[in-house]
Amino acid sequence: MFYDSSWLAICAGKPHHRARRSFAPLLMRTQCDHGSESDLPHLARRDFFKLAGAMALGLGVSARSEAAEVNTSSKLDNVLTPEAALERLLRGNDRYVSGKMKRHDFISERPALALGQNPFAGILGCADSRVGPEYAFDAGRGDLFVCRVAGNFADDETIASFEYAVSVLGTPLILVLGHSGCGAVKAAINAVRHGEEFPGHIPSLIKALRPAVKAAQDQPGDPLDNTIKQNVVINVEKLKTARPILSKAVEQRKLKIVGGTYSLETGRVALLA
Ligand SMILES: [Zn+2]
To answer: For residue 40, is pLDDT > 50?
Structure first.
């Protein structure tokens, strides 16, 4: 474990978490065996205890004590490798783009989700009202851990939020998601390159986006598109190198951090190389 006890105190679902992370490989096998996308609450009670017992035996510990820690509220399908999590995210975007979204049953999952969460992906997205991650990836509640701010950049609080998602909730993937026509990036370009002044607290956004504007200013092509992509690249790197928690999780291959952009015109998310 690479998180300290201060995290444990603030995590409502923590008593279950340690067991769930340790059991991840077995949970994944079981998911494949079942070959469905059902959630743990839908697993037959008999199967669930059989699973918990098998997991406990695999770890050489008491079935009784460990079974009591398994998070019965978590979504079984959300226990994924980073690669599988990315694949699932992109499949969800395919459904969204083609208009063939799944039906999400919010009512039946509500009691279970009130007890815990295990989101399979973290999203650092823009606050723009046209870019809703749960819609864009056709995801349900409890699936995505989303941090949004105009200009989708990571500050200390954002990093701390993802540290919580990764180390406590076991989230295996973070996607930094820029989008076409981003007004925050446009404002930053106007401020940095053309000296435009903005009122209120907007200069703090400009300050955060300035490195992207500077890095993209000599690139050929469209300045706005270039800066949007550059901003994603910078923030992917910032998260990857955020010591000690995120950097270590990446190093241990428990976490993948990728970048992409969302097209307002098509709804398509394109990953950046
Ligand atoms: Zn934006």
So the answer is: no
Domain extent for 204: 80-271
**Residue 271: strand pairing partners:** 260
Q: What's this model's pTM, rounded to 2 decimal places? A: 0.77
Domain end: 57, 77, 97, which one?
77
113 with 42, same domain: the answer is: no
CA of 27 to the centre of ligand 1 (A): 37
Whether residue 233 sits in one domain with residue 157: yes
Tokens of residue 245, six digits: 């928690």
The number of folded domains in the chain is: 2
Q: How far is the CA of 127 from the centre of ligand 1 (A)?
A: 6
Residues in the chain: 273
Q: Quote the ligand 1 centre to 58 CA distance (angstroms).
A: 47
How many Å lie between the centroid of ligand 1 and the Cα of residue 246? Answer: 25
Q: Per-residue pLDDT for 96 more than 60?
A: yes
In the chain, count of helices (H) and strands (E)? Answer: 13, 5
